[in-house]
Specification:
The structure is a single chain. It contains 17 helices and 17 strands. It is an alpha+beta fold. Strands 9-8-4-10-11-15-14-13-12 form a 9-stranded mixed β-sheet, with helices on both faces.
């Protein structure tokens, strides 16, 4: 066989000087400083500092969040930052990081959440200064959804070893069943709660806790002055949770819900009696073939639902492999039901139904989040894993703020994996001249200009008043 040489021959040595990897991750670390996240964490965790010359607990927490945002999966991955002190500064050892996580009880985690909210307010103010608005608007089927859109969903995180509170799940796997709330406008991870594997999908108290924590993350001027839509699948349709959402209006919050609902016998009767079916819309706003929707509010008793709840049913010809009920099999359609308290006159039923189906984007957020920290947990101790989850949410926020404040084009909407391969993991050379440290990125790297522009925008960001 004839050998074909397609790569240049190389001689590998280990005497390179001034070369660093993961240079783009410095963006995340500096952005944590510029938004005030590092200082807020330092203040929140100041009581854990054992000696003046030791590592700042707040800085350790930020380094862990940066490491997770950069794709790290274990505390040992802190070595990537620690062994490049010329780029990232002093980074705590693995035992020190373990000790911090073990000390983060619920009281300190509440302070960490407050620190995240404080930094979020700064990041949104910086976005408003640059773009003229604190956050982008959500677009569905070619139409804008006014205000903020909060998506709630749970997921299974499989554990391959015995961990505290890891149990058999409803999917007959073994692990945890955390519940999250993401902001669809920006991709920020507003809140999350780590739960044991057997935790129910529609547990009212858990949904209320996660929603309240998410709302606390939104700056006051937007929480009280902006329409807020809360979306969930049928797990969020418990009457207690919807009553809690309705009760938030007494706190002067303009909140509405859009949730999936179960197909019960009364619903089947209403579907059978329904007339006036209209074509459904696809994601581009065009009419979708073999899919129809109809409002059945007047045909269905709304006992237990908040006043003003509307019911919209969608039917479509099932795709191969779709799970069908006996009713669907007989009717020849696959049915789905949503419940919303958006009043008539605020969008056609086609728009309201398409608006709810956009809730599926949260599944992409969770999938990316599993590659940004909460796809595996480091400890057998539940409390440590809960603290890890909070820092993973912080890492997701750093990525979202980086995209909103520092990037444009396709990178501003790219998934974390693309950001890591193109920006965060890039190699560079560190040099010192005239008492300044220079970070030189390869001129031939295809995304060098985007990275240089990002560092330039970072330097130009308005700083919060001290």
């Amino acid at each position: 066989m004839k050998a074909t040489a397609t790569r240049p021959k190389i001689v590998v040595t280990g005497n390179g000087r001034g070369v660093v990897g993961h240079a783009g991750a410095r963006l995340l670390a500096d952005l944590a400083d510029v938004t005030g996240l590092t200082s807020a964490f330092s203040l929140a965790l100041a009581g854990l500092r054992q000696r003046r010359g030791g590592h700042d607990p707040g800085r350790i927490a930020v380094d862990l969040a940066v490491m997770l945002a950069d794709g790290g999966e274990a505390i040992a991955d802190l070595a990537v930052l620690r062994d490049q002190a010329a780029l990232f500064g002093p980074v705590a050892s693995d035992p020190t990081a373990w000790r911090l996580l073990s000390q983060l009880d619920e009281t300190l985690l509440a302070q960490v959440r407050a620190a995240r909210a404080q930094a979020r307010e700064v990041a949104w103010a910086q976005h408003a200064e640059i773009h003229g608005q604190a956050f982008p608007q959500v677009s569905v089927a070619g139409q804008t959804v006014e205000g903020l859109v909060l998506d709630m969903d749970a997921t299974i995180v499989i554990c391959h070893s015995e961990k505290e509170a890891a149990t058999r799940t409803w999917k007959k796997t073994f692990g945890y069943h955390p519940l999250f709330c993401f902001l669809d406008n920006t991709g920020e991870a507003l809140s999350g709660v780590l739960r044991e594997g057997r935790a129910g999908s529609n547990t009212t108290t858990d949904h209320i806790a996660v929603l309240d924590q998410a709302l606390a993350q939104i700056p006051d001027e937007h929480r009280h002055g902006t329409p807020i839509l809360i979306r969930s699948d049928s797990a969020g349709s418990s009457h207690g949770f919807l009553a809690h959402i309705r009760g938030l209006r007494a706190q002067h919050l303009d909140v509405r819900f859009s949730v999936g609902a179960a197909i019960t016998e009364p619903v089947r009767q209403a579907i059978t009696a329904a007339t006036g079916w209209a074509p459904a819309l696809d994601t581009d706003g065009d009419l979708r073939e073999h899919a129809e929707i109809c409002e059945i509010t007047g045909l269905l008793a709304a006992t237990g639902w908040p006043d003003g709840t509307r019911f919209i049913v969608r039917r479509e010809r099932p795709h191969p492999g779709a799970q069908l009920s006996l009713f669907d099999t007989i009717e020849g359609w696959r049915h789905q039901l949503i419940a919303t308290d958006t009043p008539p006159g605020q969008g056609s039923i086609q728009h309201l139904e398409a608006r709810h189906r956009a809730h599926a984007r949260v599944e992409d957020r969770i999938r990316c989040g599993k590659n940004t920290g909460f796809g595996r947990f480091p400890s057998r101790v539940f409390a440590i894993n809960q603290a890890w989850l909070h820092l993973a949410l912080t890492g997701i926020d750093l990525l979202a703020w980086t995209q909103a404040l520092l990037l444009d084009g396709d990178l501003a909407h790219a998934e974390p994996k693309k950001l890591r391969y193109r920006l965060l993991h890039v190699a560079a050379r560190l040099t010192r001249t005239a008492r300044q440290t220079h970070l030189a990125i390869a001129a031939g790297w295809p995304w060098t200009n985007q990275l240089l522009n990002a560092f330039g925008r970072l330097a130009a960001l308005p700083r919060p008043a001290s």
